[in-house]
Fold:
Amino acid sequence: LDFSFLAEGSNLTSFQCNNDDLNDFLKRDAFRGQNSRISATRLVYWNTILIGFFTLVNDTLTVEAVEACDGEPEYEYGKYPAIKIARLATHGDYERRDIATNMLLKIFIMVKRISKHSGCRMITVDSYPDAVGFYQRKGFKRAQLKEKDTIPLYMDFHKFDTEEENRLIATLDDF
Ligand SMILES: CC(C)(COP(=O)(O)OP(=O)(O)OC[C@H]1O[C@@H](n2cnc3c(N)ncnc32)[C@H](O)[C@@H]1OP(=O)(O)O)[C@@H](O)C(=O)NCCC(=O)NCCS
Structure:
């Protein structure tokens, strides 16, 4: 898989996932968001075919939203620093081939690197109900926050940063 930065000339027309809001976001809004430093989008290619994308933003997560076994004991602040997966989608023709799994691994690498420069303890996502099972398989938990059309999930990345993940991450390139 080839992970490229979204750029002005990126050809996005062929991308079609099973969620129209995500297709519209990528084609209409993602570049503007990136250009104004509101969000950052990465495109995923396989043999020059655009088969996935994800968008990250900075976030915070209130201490009460995480389970007692997560987070830092005697943490003295109200919120944890976080990175949010604002959008993530696999092309409909390429689902169930571990593309989203590989996108998550890439995100883990990025969060690991970012957290060397700026604290980043949690990974958050407001998941569409249909995708909650995917994220839970990957170690995300429900955040104790109000649910709207989406379900707030989090991962205590510091705890998830296991030997197995590190071994997998080591097989991928830099970000
Ligand atoms: C949800 C989505 C990202 C999954 O992408 P994918 O590339 O098919 O996922 P993977 O092939 O990496 O799946 C990894 C595992 O999760 C499982 N899985 C995939 N989609 C799932 C779902 N919707 N519910 C439960 N499990 C799911 C797979 O069976 C696989 O299980 P395994 O590890 O036991 O083999 C993709 O279906 C999608 O883009 N959907 C539309 C957009 C969307 O909902 N995005 C999430 C926005 S928050």
